[in-house]
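REQUEST FORM: STRUCTURE PREDICTION
Request ID: SP-0412
Submitted by: Lab K.M.
Chain count: 1
Length (residues): 80
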Amino acid sequence: MDLSIQELGPAKLVVNADVAWQTVGTLERLQKTFHQGAVIVSSDLEGAVRSLVSSQSPWKNPVKHQDELDLTLSAVTPFF
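STATUS: Completed
RESULT:
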C-alpha cells in the first residue's frame, strides 16, 4: 500500500491484510510523515521484502532505521 493515500508520505506498507488498517491507524496516531525510501513491513514478511529488494536493486539498500510498532496505539478496531 502506498501510504501517500493516507497522507502519511510516499512510504510503502507491506503487512498482512488482517492488520493493514490497524497499522495505518497506529501510524496516523504517531503523526509522522514518512519519506520516499521508507518501508513499513511486518516481521513475518520482512525476509521476503529484503530478498525482493536485494534481488531487484543494482545497489545495496541497507536498513537505516528499524522500530517496533505497537498496534495497540491504533484507534482502529481490528476485525476478528
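NOTES: The longest strand covers residues 12-14.
Reviewed by: T.R.
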